[in-house]
Design goal:
Elements: H1 11-14, H2 17-36, E1 47-49, H3 55-61, E2 68-73, H4 78-94, E3 99-104, H5 109-115, E4 122-127, E5 130-136, H6 141-159, H7 182-195, H8 199-212, H9 217-232, H10 237-246, H11 251-263, H12 267-280, H13 283-300, H14 305-318
Parallel strand pairs: 1-3, 2-3
Antiparallel strand pairs: 2-4, 4-5
Helix pairs in contact: 7-8, 7-9, 8-9, 9-11, 9-13, 10-11, 11-12, 11-13, 12-13, 12-14
Length: 319
């Protein structure tokens, strides 16, 4: 994939004047506080693994002091790994004037949705709490450096944010890699099975994770995806759609087409079909359709606006 948005054009429009003024004031206050304490603030870790739980502190709050380069990535894609290595090398050369926050797309679906990530790898900048797209897809190092140069210039000129440059020759800290937990290893094995098309193995692996941690959102999402893919595996889409059209009251036929619609990216069609089927059914049939609809909500994610709209439609039908 070719890089796009390889410029900082549009930054001024995205950055509100009020926010810029507040960021400058905070930056000046931090420098003044450091001076009163007889030294400079400590250089930040150049690379941080960020999650939904740490996003506010590691990205939003930090972005008032240093430009934060947010990389949505996965270690299962070569392009993501290569770009992460490039960003880490370049972060070291900027010596504290930028930091890199990497976010695993599989483990942080809410952030993926909030940033509107369309593909990976995807890179954004956050300055004074404001996000702006930099580029998407693999990019050569010289182009990435050009974008980061512009980011550093905009951060200083527009926001007064300079980061915490290290003294020449000083060692600048990089976040240490921690060993994966047993649960993370199990999740990785489940993801690998799913990527390799071993749907039965993936389903069992996700269930194993959930048996130890029933609230694990990543495992719930993976399980819902794997079960959906297994249901449509080998399905004759044309025959399924004809069966559903010929028998609107056939619950199994309507559910089968909804599954196919979701896999094909027709999310609203899938949800609408099942909501209409709930409206037309009663008793066990209605409950069967309702439960399948809830499963499909899991595949898309609770915070997706299409899920929110469908939940409201389902509630109107049921109550």
């Amino acid at each position: 994939m070719q890089p796009r948005n390889m410029s900082m054009s549009g930054v001024v429009d995205l950055a509100a004047v009020k926010a810029a003024g507040e960021a400058k004031a905070k930056a000046e206050q931090a420098r003044a506080e450091a001076a009163r304490n007889g030294g400079a603030p400590a250089a930040p870790a150049l690379v941080t693994e960020v999650t939904e739980a740490t996003f506010e502190s590691d990205v939003l709050q930090r972005s008032t002091e240093v430009p934060v380069v947010v990389h949505f990535w996965t270690d299962r894609a070569d392009a993501s790994v290569q770009l992460q290595e490039t960003l880490e090398r370049l972060a070291a050369t900027y010596a504290g004037r930028i930091v890199v926050a990497r976010i695993d797309v599989y483990a942080n679906q809410l952030l993926v949705q909030q940033f509107g990530v369309q593909g990976i790898p995807a890179v954004f900048a956050v300055l004074a709490g404001q996000a702006m797209p930099l580029f998407q897809g693999a990019a050569p190092e010289d182009q990435v450096r050009e974008v980061l140069d512009q980011l550093v210039a905009v951060a200083e000129q527009r926001f007064g944010i300079t980061g915490v440059p290290a003294e020449e020759g000083a060692e600048v800290p990089v976040a240490e890699e921690r060993p994966p937990t047993a649960q993370e290893i199990a999740l990785s094995a489940a993801h690998d099975a799913l990527d390799q098309g071993d749907l039965g193995g993936a389903i069992q692996a996700y269930r194993n994770v959930l048996s130890d941690d029933p609230s694990n959102a990543e495992a719930k999402l993976g399980l819902a995806q794997a079960e959906l893919l297994r249901r449509v595996e080998g399905a004759d889409a044309q025959a399924a759609r004809k069966a559903a059209a010929d028998a609107p009251a056939d619950v199994a036929a309507q559910i089968a087409v909804a599954d196919l619609d979701l896999v094909g990216g027709h999310v609203e069609d899938a949800f609408g079909r099942l909501v209409d089927t709930v409206r037309r059914t009663v008793g066990e049939d209605r409950e069967t359709v309702r439960l399948r609809l809830l499963e499909l909500f899991e595949v898309i994610g609770a915070d997706d606006p299409r899920v929110t709209a469908a939940r409201a439609a389902l509630a109107r039908v049921l109550f």
